[in-house]
Amino acid sequence: MIPGWVKMFVVSSALPRPRGHDHEHLPPPARAPLRQGWLVQWWSPDRSGCGWPAAAEEVAAAVPQYRELFEAVETQFPGASARERFHEGLRQLIDLLVSGLIEGTVAAAGESGATTADEVRACAGRLASFTPEVALTSRALKTFLLENVYATPALGAGRQQSQELISNLFQFFLENPARLPQPYADQALDEPAHRVVCDYIAGMTDAFLRRTYELMLGPVPTLPLA
Question: In 3D, which of 57, 56, 58, 48 has the Cα closest to residue 86?
């Protein structure tokens, strides 16, 4: 399973490029890197004016392998803006993490000797894993994100509200399993309701969680602007 924090960075590659970012007319190597996915804009209250070079430097200081990637990007795409180089470095970092997860999982599966789904379930440890080198990069990036994104006061109110929405919606469906959509409503007749409700809520996006909450329990309170 791809780590949840990856979702925070990756935005669908189907999104159109913003206007003013068409570099196809530029000759290589000045042409900007192809962006296979747009990344969430770097922002926090105490960094509002830091700019893309400073943002990249902060990530590089915490995640050594990102520094290597970013320095390679600067050489490879000298004509790209600082913002584009920052995005391209993150894109390559995500590619490294995903590749490391695939390679690590293949290696662990081979070493386990498991050949069936039942044998995989019987393994003492989890087979889906990073390679050792990429695991270090993953931990460094998770630590950086926890300290500089997830745990920042600016996100505290939203995180607390999300927890309350999930808790309230879980309790509602636990007490009213017939209000679950199909096939979950039927599953709740034969399986533990709390497990069915967990499966249903776990598949929700933030937007779908809010829509479902409003449909079942009423308006979601508006958070004050930071």
Answer: 56
- Residue ranges of E strands in 41-197: none
- Show pLDDT as tens, one digit a residue, over the chain (226 residues): 333 333 333 333 333 333 333 334 333 333 333 333 333 443 333 443 444 566 677 878 888 888 888 888 888 888 888 888 888 888 898 999 999 999 999 999 999 999 998 999 899 889 999 999 999 999 998 998 888 877 777 777 888 888 999 999 999 999 999 999 999 999 999 999 999 999 999 999 989 999 999 999 999 887 665 5
What backbone phi and psi angles, to 5 degrees, belong to 10? -85, 130
Domain range summary for the chain, segments of one domain joined by +: 6-150, 153-217
Total Cβ atoms within 10 A of residue 150: 13
- Give counts: helices (H), strands (E), the chain: 10, 2
Give pTM, 2 decimals: 0.55
Task: For 83-154, list the strands marked E by DSSP.
Answer: none
CA-to-CA distance for 52 and 87, rounded, in angstroms? 9
